[in-house]
Amino acid sequence: MGGKNNTWWLCTEFSASFSDEGSRFGTVLNPALKRQADSSFAHAEYRIANHASEFDCIDAILALKRAMQTRLDHLDEIYKFNQYSEAKNLGWLGLLESWGVIRQRMLRRMRQLRNAVEHDGAEPPSLEECQDYCEVAWWFLRGTSPLLMPLTETTFIFDEGHMSFRFRYSPVTILASGKVNPEMLSDAEIAGWTKVEMVPERRTGEPNRETPYGNPQDGTYQISFRVADPSSVHSLLRMAFKELL
């Protein structure tokens, strides 16, 4: 290892868990959108609880879909889904599923049902179906609420070393520094590893030092890097979201 190459590949399948040193925003970003999603969901619950005709079921499904879409718009405002090429093929729900945030099958079914009822004149759902979809939407809103307070910094402790991360999402940029075993770092591309750009290590009162460099005491490598390519951040985003959820 060594030389002037700034592009490296890092194994980010760390074999431990985040420490408890993460810091997050203290308030929900754009609380008006959260209130709007909650209000739509509350309206759906009311129409289901006071069911008198098929029109209540139709209105409930429309309100549940509105609550789900409002939450997706809220998350997109924070994380800018379309900066990831995968969003074009997977859709927003599929992208969230690939990050380990949700399971999308029932949410897609609810969306299809809403479209069929509103645009194609399909039979309205039964009361029991509405109750089922209401529960699905409840889990979706509850499960994604922590992401409204994005993780910005954390330190990850693992068997092979440690790493401190700073996350920015719009546009996505991840900065990190720490130490890893040599086998976790490669100057040639390895499938499944994260492409990173090494940056100098900032040292107080001393000149910055190019990374990676070896630690003779324990045989590890000290690294500082940035990931600004949306195609290379997914494994690290999964780590960040796992810490929140």
Give a written overview of the molecule.
The structure is a single chain. The relative contact order is 0.20. The protein has helices at 31-49, 54-79, 86-98, 105-119, 127-144, 234-244; strands spanning 7-10, 23-24, 151-158, 161-169, 172-180, 185-186, 194-198, 213-215, 220-227. The chain starts with 6 loop residues before the first strand and ends with a helix. Strands 1, 2, 3, 4, 5, 6, 7, 8 and 9 form a nine-stranded antiparallel sheet that branches. It contains six helices and nine strands, in the order E-E-H-H-H-H-H-E-E-E-E-E-E-E-H.
Question: How would you summarize what this structure contains?
Answer:
With 245 residues, this protein is α+β, with helices and mostly antiparallel strands. It has helices at residues 31-49, 54-79, 86-98, 105-119, 127-144, 234-244, and strands at residues 7-10, 23-24, 151-158, 161-169, 172-180, 185-186, 194-198, 213-215, 220-227. 42% of the residues lie in helices and 20% in strands.
